[in-house]
Amino acid sequence: MTVLPIPPHYDPNKVGKIWKVSYQKLAEEAKKWVVSHQLRPAAEDNLKICLLLIDVQNTFCIPDFELFVAGRSGVAAVRDNQRLCQFIYRNLDCITQISCTMDTHQSIQIFHPIFFINQSGEHPEPYTIISSDDVDNGYWKINPEALESLGLTPPYGESFLRSYSRALEKKGKYNLTIWPYHAMLGGIGHAIVPAVEEAIFFHSIARLAPTTFHIKGDTPLTENYSAIKPEVMYDHSGKQIAQEDRSIVNKLVDFDAVFIAGQAKSHCVAWSIEDLYKKISTIDVKLASKIYILQDCMSPVVVSEVIDYTDEADRTFEKFAERGMNLIDSTQSIRKLPGAGP
């Protein structure tokens, strides 16, 4: 079986730009595409395939936005999304459902500068690392006005921050990191990249398959790299401050295959896959073989002369392969899976 052609509306030169998707015009084109290529409703698929897109949002994927994932090439996320869009269009008749996670923040959260203050009344610069020693020595404290806005007291904030910073270090992932304000709810950076939005809308009309969305990162007192669970679930007193999202785990059980793409490879994608694996391992470790990672549709965080997570990310994904997950390129057709295609 041959792959589908790329629809004429797709323009790879627009993938790194902001523009308005013409929904009605696109819907009419999609209905014609159904007829010309004899597409069936997704509900009739023999093999149920989910495409899980991790944080394919303007804030990470459009140059000059807050946390553009440039990679070592300087344009990585744009190239990733060009390949991702083409993957969706070529495999339109095989993808049963597209699900998008959306990093979702507001200004007063524990990883944003306004949340902290030092003795000079200064807020930390983006990319500042706050260690438990910094907290114990009183170098950084939670901004009392930020605490008040959340209905919390200074004694609570002091105890919580000490517990939180130690919990992060104990997990061995990342110390508390201050990030630029990004993925702000209601802002343009929060939205899905227009070219990808266009592709998933086209899919939803052509296959009669509504896109599903998963909000993550909106809890003020914890970081939330993974789409499955936040970094810290409980405060110093044992009170729950955030919840897991088991719906993504359920997709791996309910679907025959889950393809994963998105940003950033070194952070939200890596830890989403890690947590997904931990959860499914308690059900059946063989479920790992259902995971297909589109490794050319994701890139690691690289900030010139500051941080470069490329090698660390590559080692992490090699570990995923050793666990039975499939590392593939977007040019590989879904149709090669048994039972895929019309």
Which consecutive residue ranges, at least 5 long each, have pLDDT under 50? none
Largest sheet: 6 strands, parallel
Radius of gyration: 21 Å
Second-tier CATH architecture of the largest domain: 3-Layer(aba) Sandwich
- Total of DSSP H or I helical runs spanning 4+ residues: 10
Alpha-beta classification = alpha/beta
Task: Write out the strand line-up for the largest beta sheet, numbering strands in chain order.
Answer: 7-2-1-8-9-12
What percentage of amino acids are in beta strands? 5-15%
End-to-end distance, in Å? Answer: 9 Å
Instruction: Indicate the mean pLDDT.
Output: 94
Q: CATH superfamily assignment of the largest domain?
A: Isochorismatase-like
Shape: globular
Number of strands: 12
Instruction: Give the topology string: H per helix, E per strand.
Output: HEHHEEEHEHHEHEHEHEEEHE
Helix content: 25-40%
CATH class of the largest domain: Alpha Beta
Q: The CATH topology of the largest domain is what?
A: Rossmann fold
Brief write-up:
The protein is α/β, with parallel strands linked by helices. 33% of the residues lie in helices and 13% in strands.
How would you describe what is shown here?
The chain is of the alpha/beta class and 342 residues long. The protein has helices spanning 23-37, 58-61, 76-90, 132-136, 144-149, 154-171, 194-206, 247-254, 265-281, 310-322; strands at residues 49-54, 97-103, 116-117, 129-130, 141-142, 176-177, 212-216, 257-262, 291-294, 302-303, 307-308, 326-328. It folds into two domains: 37-105 and 183-336, Rossmann fold (3-Layer(aba) Sandwich); 113-177, no CATH class. The chain has ten helices and twelve strands. The model has no long low-confidence stretch (mean pLDDT 94). It is globular, with a radius of gyration of 21 Å.
